[in-house]
Amino acid sequence: MSEQKNTTQKCYKVVCFLLCLFAFSCEESPQKIIEKAKKSVVTIKTPTGSGSGFVASADGLIITNNHVVENYETVEIHFPDGRTTVASPIKKGLSVLDVAYLKVDGSKFDYFPVNFNCNTGDEVYAIGAPLGLPESVSKGIISNCDRTLKGVKFIQTDAAVNAGNSGGPLINKKGEVVGLLTFKISAEGVEGLNFALSPAVVWDFYENKLTNLEEALKKEVIAQNKEVTAQNPANRSTSGEPYWVVVYENDDATHLYDVNNMNFLNENIFYAWFKSKYKTPQLTTTANKLQTESMSLFRYDCTERSFLWLEYEEVYTDGSTGKMKSHLDKIYAEPGSVQMLLMNQVCK
Predict the structure, then answer these.
(1) Helix (H, G, I), strand (E, B) or coil at 321
(2) Does 98 participate in catalysis according to the annotation?
(3) Catalytic residue of the set 98, 258, 301, 329
(4) Strand residues in 165-252 grouped as ranges (E)
(5) Which domains does the chain have, with CATH numbers?
(6) Overall pTM > 0.70
(7) For residues 77 and 44, is the Cβ–Cβ distance under 8 A?
(8) Residues 78-125: pLDDT tens digits?
(9) Backbone torsions φ then ψ of 231, nearest 5 degrees
(10) Element (H, E) at 159
């Protein structure tokens, strides 16, 4: 009887081992997960830059950051298979609730499942188009599941995030979205501080479950607008003729700033007008015209190496212009960017 029991136990262990081995062999490799995930990541192009986004439903719902699309009625959506289409935002957040939703025509899109669970230490991948390079992947872990800013929940990760990653997905090893890549903190001596909107926030806002938070953020933005309007130290009509100095030049454009209109609010904060002159006229989707240059008003903070983008103006080949108010979310200057080059020259 004892011998029969031992034989049964041995058989049980062998069966368990084989089942575990089978389950392990059936689990997809990270390479396969990432290749499958790339099919659902899009590049979003605007007249002034590009960002990322991801397909969130089979009928073509696309999610990205508001700061990628907020100044434009339509943007270009570029799919990994080469397809390109135009889409308009159907719902947008504001301030730190930095999410926007677009809809493209079609059906049976490859899309991401969502995982609302968050575990510190889980391995994750950031996918997007940093610096305009589509289908770029970086790897890291979830550093913290509960970073809250002005009532909005973020997930912290050390997966590398750069300009152009905004709006892309942060996915887990199962290929599920666990966050919407939103911003990073860039400063001397700082590494790996990157943040993604919690998927719970992204979906609750889409389903109109965050009305109280939305109203509170609207009031805050209105107050910020009043403050900027009241201060308005960079008044072009009273601060002399512009004197443009080259900050950076590349194959597409020359970037300049106006030294006569750099106005210091205090020793750490200054306002500056910035201009980009395009060597080849650029098509803008907002007015469907070719623009020859663009001009922006920035408020810079030397201490934080951050800036607010206050105004934006486009000049078209026919001589007409188009103006927009830009978002008032704080942006941290990227190393090597024209904003960082300017601050390195001006900030003492």
Answers:
(1) strand
(2) yes
(3) 98
(4) 169-172, 177-184, 194-197, 244-249
(5) 123-206 (2.40.10.10), 244-346 (2.40.128.710)
(6) no
(7) yes
(8) 999 999 999 999 999 988 899 999 999 988 899 999 999 999 999 999
(9) -75, -55
(10) none
